[in-house]
Amino acid sequence: MTKNITKKIKFTDKGICAPKGFRASGVHVGFRENQKKKDLGLLVSDVMCNAFAVHTQNKVKGAPILVNREHLKDGKAQGIVVNSGNANTCAPNGVQVARETCRLAADALGLKAEDLLVCSTGVIGQEINIETFERGIPRVVKKLSYDDSESLARSIMTTDKITKQVAVSFEVAGKMCHIGAVAKGSGMINPNMATMLSFLTTDVSISREMLRTALLNDVADTYNQIYIDGDTSTNDTVAILANGLAGNPEIDAPGAEFDLFCEALNQVTVTLCRLLAKDGEGATKLIECVVKNAPTKRIARIVSSSVVGSDLVKTAIFGEDANWGRVLCAVGYADADFECAHIDVVLSSQAGDILVCKGSEAVNFSEEKAAKILACDEIRIDVDLHDGSKDAVAYGCDLTFGYVRINGRYRS
């Protein structure tokens, strides 16, 4: 995208409620023992939306995903009901509970059950009871607000330490438009998404086909490029709802307006990816690996993911050790065909940058300067393959003692 397009996009507030006609809420109803933690959320549009969702590639899938695929066959949805604390995966009567949850929410909202999506996140393999939804849905419906992205963001948190929400504004054909989003995710995050839920809203009028194209293209370079711990969860869902209330002429074909929409979407998703990676379980540092000059886009994605997914790279960054040999090792075992004889590696952060490898060979560099760079909480690793013209970015975090502690007692 050009700089001129990027200049047209402004970050704004209100998160997922920034687009016109979207209400959100979140309450505690008992899926989680801690009464201070919200565990049931709701997102609703005033009007029907064009909708599309991308789900986990794990062969074992949560019951909500099976229901959502049914409900999205017509490319339409008007809201999402979501709980945390229980993933509704491998649960007795899980699909029945997911369907009944949609019916309960639809009855309370005056909608059809098939026009709602349902999502769950939390512990896999636990029974989930419809009684908790029966008790909670009237409460979460009553709390709906055009200004409560925060409660929805909190309702989907599990091991997350911070809420993740963002919104942007831009003009299409003279109409002010918005894209807003919330997300959760901290562990079980592997390329091809994560224990990650991300809901996106927009008031842009855009056809179902172009909305699908925009999200699929974006996910390949954003959500599918996050790598926390090598585990792909069972419930991953990225869903987008477009209600058209901005009033712009419908975007129904490629062109300048579609490019602007895609860039705005990317600004939102990249922001969320950075927040998700930086909030990895036990993490102290965000790691971004930028692979440059690869033979193909696919190879650039594979190599960058290989670097941020390496346990040895992750532990070196945690230890603030400029052990660049681990980076080249991770590049070398990436499952792709490319030339490895001329690789340059640069480490950088707000403290500066330093060349640590040139032409796949050692160079003299200041260990003291490298240590200062790695002491920062956001680290960038640039890998120049000098074997093409395609680039890609992957997002990850360091691997710490905290990760083992959190996951060693996850259910307790």
What features would you highlight for this structure?
alpha+beta; L-amino peptidase D-ALA esterase/amidase; Ubiquitin-like (UB roll); nine-stranded mixed β-sheet; seven-stranded mixed β-sheet
Structural class label: alpha+beta
Based on CA atoms alone, the radius of gyration comes out at 22 Å
Count the beta strands.
16
Order of helices and strands: HEEEHEHEHHEEEHEEHEHHHEEEHEEH
The proportion of strand residues reads 25-35%
The count of domains is 2
Shape: globular
Residue stretches low in confidence (pLDDT < 50, at least 5 long) are none
Sheet having the most strands: 9 strands, mixed
What is the C-level CATH assignment of the largest domain? Alpha Beta
Distance between the termini: 46 Å
- Rounded mean pLDDT is 91
What is the third-level CATH name, the topology of the largest domain? L-amino peptidase D-ALA esterase/amidase
Helix fraction bin: 25-40%
Q: CATH H level of the largest domain: which superfamily?
A: L-amino peptidase D-ALA esterase/amidase
Describe the protein in words.
The protein is of the alpha+beta class. It has 2 domains: 3-278, L-amino peptidase D-ALA esterase/amidase (4-Layer Sandwich); 286-408, Roll (Ubiquitin-like (UB roll)). Helices cover 32% and strands 28% of the residues. The chain has 12 helices and 16 strands. Helix 2 crosses helix 3 (94-109), helix 3 (94-109) packs parallel to helix 4 (130-142) and helix 6 (208-221) crosses helix 7 (256-278). The longest helix is centred in the middle third of the chain and has 23 residues, at 256-278. It is globular and about 70 Å long. The N and C termini lie far apart (46 Å).
